[in-house]
Amino acid sequence: MEKVLISQLTNFKGKEVRLSGWLTNKRSGKGLEFLIIRDGSGFIQCIVDETKVNDADFQIAKSLTQESSVSLVGQVVKDEKQIGGFEIHVSKLELLHESKGYPITNKPHGVEFLMDNRHLWLRSKRQWAIMRVRNRIIFAIHNFFQGEGFVQMDSPVFTGNAVEGTTTLFETTYYEDKAYLTQSGQLYGEAMAMAMGKIYTFGPTFRAEKSKTRRHLSEFWMIEPEMAFYDNDMNMDLIERFIKYILKDVKANCISELEVLERDTSIFDKIIEGTFPRLTYDYAVDVLKGKEKINGKTTIETLENDYKEVLLEIENKQNQILEAEAEIKQGVKKGKQNFLQNKIDTLKNDIKELEDRKRVIPEWINSANSFEYGSDLGGSDETVLTRMFDLPLMVYNWPHEVKAFYMKRDDKNKNLAKGVDVLAPEGYGEIVGGGERETNEDLLIQKIEEHQLPMKAFEWYLDLRRFGSVPHAGFGLGLERMVAWVCKLKHIRETIPFPRMYGRLFP
Ligand code: 4AD
Ligand code: MG
């Protein structure tokens, strides 16, 4: 008999198969045990019927505990109601290992508890789905760049160079010297692009972000393409194609994962078919501050409308709760009562989220109103801007003071640098930062001095401008930010198997 994975069951309709996996959930009926088994490739309901298996096997099913490992034999039966469209009618069941007192039950747990048990939490269905989406995104990224003729390169983790400012450096020792964990592979990528034409790095990067936010990790994975003979317009064209490619690929290949995550993918279609709005920084600031209207409305008007809608929605949900509670009080059957109680709990949760929005919208309005031209966009400014468009935005031509030392100064306006940030919609904000690189050696030296970086450490980098300097550009995509957006997660911590962030090093 063939040993199969749950993901392969569609090829075994009506056949007897052997499966191995773990029990994730269980329900009992009269003479029946309904086991939900997972094997890493998927989830499946396995029915153990007292009259169809021997007594010992039925006893195993009856007393099976969460996360015990089993091996079983059974027939693959089509059942449209089931996830995946199949179930297994078990004929033999063998216990491999009994799990006792698994800490993560099917009741709700606090997130800190789950993070402390991350090594086990990864087995849960949502986490399973997220990790598989992450895997698919990684695969799609390699496919995209390899298909476009890019050469993958590995940049060093130990480095003597600060790239993205000196405030987020992790310092370490390197034999007798001081060294840093890399913040970005870009500078090395530029050197390699001069050797290969088009390259991309895909590696871990480190930033000491001493604050707890929903979008910052201390260790994250970045994809950094770098292209010789590219200007920033070509760079933006590439970014747009790249993001569309990932969305298309994930949508086609992660159907059940996105279903588990209850991710509405209609926005992906809109993005795949749409054109990303490209806003100069100046224009973006005007939009933000309500000087420019989008679709006939200013940001402030849009947010005030959102606020009113939130209030209405809260009221509406509160009324629904009252109605459901009244119905329960009148006396209903047990099943109906459970249904109503569930509905009430969901509504209460929704209200909690709406209350959060109610609290932050005035903060957003405030931050939009008080934004000062010349400063960097903050998280809430990004949220407000993306609220105005249902597509990723590309904000380009930034005041050079807020950008890194290597950004190319705009020939037409010396105050601006040819950088680009891509802001993801649905409130996610920056997922990509990039731009054209400064080719003028004198300007670069001046910038390195202004940023108070040690010139000696950058001598090798300046060589790239001394020997056949060419226009070039590139960008960095934060993998975890992309995963968070694609899966529509509230927090970046769930996008990586073992997150490293301020206040967490274990497990
Ligand atoms: O905008 P950043 O700092 O740009 C660079 O590092 C450039 N050297 C990239 C390049 O042009 N080659 O970072 C790029 C992206 C951000 O847009 C964000 O998605 C992600 O990296 N990122 C983080 N992700 C998670 N946690 C953090 N602390 C992050 N910091 C940046
Ligand atoms: Mg950035």
Structure, described:
- This protein is of the alpha+beta class.
- It folds into three domains: 6-97, OB fold (Dihydrolipoamide Acetyltransferase, E2P) (Beta Barrel); 125-274 and 455-495, Bira Bifunctional Protein, Domain 2 (BirA Bifunctional Protein, domain 2); 282-370, no CATH class.
- It is 40% helix and 23% strand.
- The chain is built from 15 helices and 16 strands.
- An eight-stranded mixed sheet has the order 6-10-11-16-15-14-13-12. A five-stranded mixed β-barrel has the order 1-2-3-5-4. The protein has a three-stranded antiparallel sheet with strand order 7-9-8, with no helix packed on it.
- A hairpin with a 2-residue loop joins strand 1 (16-29) and strand 2.
- Helix 4 crosses helix 6 (232-253), helix 4 (125-147) packs across helix 15 and helix 11 (334-369) packs across helix 12.
- The protein is globular and about 85 Å long.
- It binds 4-amino-1,4-dioxobutan-2-aminium adenosine-5'-monophosphate (4AD) and magnesium ion.
- Magnesium ion binds at residues 421, 430, 433.
